[in-house]
């Protein structure tokens, strides 16, 4: 009964049980490729053979720098089948950051979309031995992807894989330093795949048509490609840069039943439907992740009859950690939205703790706050190359999130440990202060950072983007805030800016903001 | 990410996330006990503490001889929590067989229902050191179950469990010799639990109310108690000897959504509804297992609007091997029934082969036959104490079933390599029955075959050759047999013949015998 849990079993399962199931790729709103799991399997095995002939050995890292297309999906399975480690690189990174992660991972081969090849310039200069293969069209004189697949023969004798061997690798966008690598074993991704198909979670099934909106360079694309292949779900890939109008067209054309996306994209989609009236009624589940959805978005989705859920996770958790589905007893629409705005319940298999500043476990009463610690069979217990051991404690991942857990077991993340501002020995929540700022009708977006302060150690400082047509002054913004927050929360200053800087994954980049404030904004 | 997969995590999950969820016990059609997961957890931890104080050490076997009641459910978790191995004994075995399995497993403690204590007489005489505890009422002078729970304190420091440690043990009814033990590791049951909750399978979820009709002395009660606790489903236990009228009453009273049972019981239930009109509309899934359902039963269930599925498995597969759900594209009612009459598709995680007599893999075309071989993380690769190595080949379990697999991946078992008769979901060993027949001094030779039976699916039928000079009648033969086998093993008929037909290699040709019986012997 100690059969190893290896990903390649999922690939073979799709070939055996769902050979005629389709994989469809779009480019924009136009279908560009449609084939079956049978063809997919054949191409994956051919590509794995080509990787071995290229010199890729078990344990080697093979990178991708690519949008969501069928060749990227093939790489998801061909690289682990060859015993190698799939390293998905975030295409929004700067060329120097890309060079950093490729160097850190020591990738021997990188597959990149033609349009993204220029981003590899720095890395190629640094690592001339690295083999670069264009996934589409012809590369700059090198082998192309289709050459490799066509060259055959398929991999005859795949290397024997231990379940604890790495199958994939993904770097977190570093907010406090260089990116950190998270390695995923075959076992961890296999168990994560089962978790994605549980009836109480994402519930991926053979009856689904899954649209991969979540970038495949994000942690395992939430694990959905593995779940789809295991269950025989139909998979649809939107191609590069999907915009809401394209997503709506694809949902209609393919009868998409399940997709996941960040709330920003979902909000755009909802506005598009309101404006132009697309039919999204085939969706049985729209899972929101990356950041929590607001009530307005959830209400709009309710009005459209689209069941929405929140999934919370981290690169370090493969990434699925929780799933927010209202309790069976909760039927009131507003109460259901409140449930979904929380991060939800821990997936089976995982365990968590809420640890207060004094190191003690906090009660799960919806009020007590603590840092969230997580452990489980798909939670990292170390970073690649054993860096940053301080992020782990006795097998627990320190998430760096400050959270509450209510009596029903629903997680609510109330702050990042590092985004808390400690003023005169008291915590100020930058998240709560940002919410109070955007409650002002004049304010479109806001960000709060901590700035050093002689008397109070640290004080909040606010940056706001005004709604179009508004010309409120910093004093106006402060005046509005007076009624909304405790007096001692009032920021030391307000800076009106045109836009807020964001990281490659779309999060507000507080590192840049702090620098901006330090450089004079605060003066 | 190599967190061990241990069952006790499921117990703690229920306590943390679903403390108020109910567990209800019935005795007949009367509710006898209702409590919550919170109380359940507390009692389980107390009982585990008591086991340790009784002297139970990690790895020791602790047996149960019990019906489906809340204390049996508590033992399912308390025994593994104490690091010991739960050995569920089939209460339909004869006292000598019970003594055999208790001796073979070397159980140190046995928990038995008061009504079943007499069945332990042989075992107690053989193993006087074995501690016997009555699960209900007061035992014969010994500790009772409630004494143990009340005695406290709870287990403070549960032993550290490795995922490959055994958590449970179950014996198959021996077909060609004594019963064989199948050990289940924590890891195997944990993965089996995930499989039970997949959206495409049994799909056990928090929204379910599960009725445990499947005897808990059968292989892990199909794994449903673990799945229910992991997901927070409400659990309902029917108590001893549930009859269809009681099942119908419980389904109505508790709003049962999921249950599993053998087709015989389901057919009785359907007849009861036709006669007396119970409301079973709360059922979202009725899973039939143990033997395949016939078309009449499936049509009756369709007419009642009860979705029915077939689950196939074996004690050696924990027991879930396949699940038969019609393809999403199949909507015609008759075609759906045809799908459900097949054993269905292999669960994710498992792999299978169809091996012909010449040792080659047979095509999956719905026509080619072969012996079914299975492997996977919850498939046995050996029997307890390493007996019968011939049942395994290179990590594959030889199921002994002759089957076809069609192009959609649906298994259909067409014959059994070994001579077993399945009567109302329970195995009868034709070999053991033949031995009992020839123990009669009047009988020279005997053969037993299974004949189709309306109520029990299959029943044994005996053919005997008398010793020279004897003229015993079939009734004489049956009368002699009464003292030698359980009542329910008694053949439907006995045919006295001059000789038994044999194959070219001298084996009794049961195919010819079945034809003989069908042609009139059974009339």
TrEMBL record, chains A, B:
What InterPro entries does the annotation carry? AMP-bd_C, AMP-bd_C_sf, AMP-binding_CS, AMP-dep_synth/lig_dom, ANL_N_sf
What top-level branch of life does the organism fall under?
Bacteria
| CDD domains, alphabetized | ttLC_FACS_AlkK_like
Indicate the segments forming the AMP-dependent synthetase/ligase domain, all copies: 19-384
The keyword Zinc is annotated on this UniProt entry: no
Determine if NAD is one of this entry's keywords. no
Provide the AMP-binding enzyme C-terminal domain boundaries. 433-507
Gene3D superfamilies, alphabetically? 3.30.300.30, N-terminal domain of ligase-like (3.40.50.12780)
One GO molecular-function annotation for this sequence?
ligase activity
Pfam families attached to this UniProt entry: AMP-binding, AMP-binding_C
Q: Which UniProt keywords apply?
A: Fatty acid metabolism, Ligase, Lipid metabolism
Note the NCBIfam families from the entry. Answer: PRK06187.1 (NF004837)
Q: Which family does it belong to?
A: Belongs to the ATP-dependent AMP-binding enzyme family.
Q: What protein name does the entry list?
A: Long-chain fatty acid--CoA ligase
- What organism is the protein native to? Amycolatopsis rhabdoformis
